Amino acid sequence: MTEHTYKQFDVELDEIRSHLLRMGGCVQNMITDAMQAVLTGNTDLIEKVRETEKEVNELEVLTDQEVQNLIVRRQPTAVDLRIALAVTKMLTDMERCGDEAEKIAKLANRIHDDAQRFVPELELQHMFRAVSEMLNDVMDSFARHDSVKAAAVVRHDKQVDKEWKAALRGLISYMIEDPRTISGAIELLFVARSLERIGDHCKNMAERVIFMVHGADVRHQGVKAAERLVAERTQAE
């Protein structure tokens, strides 16, 4: 490549990174707005989530096309190729996080239309904070090429799984104690399930960041294996 071509390549790669981070910011807003809609019944927030979902979908299509064009025109190698490949996978997980946020917003409508509605905030607030932190951290680890933080996100998913089980137990208890809460509790179970899935998608993205930085695939190997690899590679560098 000529110097001019290298500069153009860097510009294109920076634009791809910027679009993925912008997409992450949109999804974070969707999750926050959707959960506030669950807690308050604010229909304006529900509509806002739907509008933001359109932007997320547009960014996914745009960024995916940009990655394809970059690979075809520039034929990147080594870490640059890994960045491009990681972004294509992360786009899918990010878009699915947005889908889950939209599901939560739709559930908010049904929850607050129910005459017997109730919202046990504690069971869901912990999960919401946990997955929001995961999404923030995975975006930060991507922006900074920080595999240590990415490994921490992989571990954090275990905590979200525990929160999901706690929410499940709590909501079942509500249904047993007061059958009038069954309808609302079932809707809240779906909300908790969507939050748990967002956590899973964040973990997937964190594993992609580790691949991007170190060229090692840690999927399906467990938290300890991911942490061990990151520690070994980081020390070696």
Automatic annotation (TrEMBL):
The reply on keyword Transport is: yes
Subcellular location(s) of the protein? Cytoplasm
Q: Which residues form the PhoU domain?
A: 20-107, 124-209
Keywords (alphabetical) are: Coiled coil, Cytoplasm, Phosphate transport, Transport
Gene3D superfamilies recorded: Phosphate transport system protein phou homolog 2, domain 2
Q: Per its UniProt entry, which superkingdom is the organism in?
A: Bacteria
UniProt-listed InterPro entries:
PhoU, PhoU-like_sf, PhoU_dom
Q: What is its main location?
A: cytoplasm
Q: What family is this?
A: Belongs to the PhoU family.
Q: How does it assemble?
A: Homodimer.
User: What is the recorded name of this protein?
Assistant: Phosphate-specific transport system accessory protein PhoU
Q: What species does this protein belong to?
A: Orrella daihaiensis
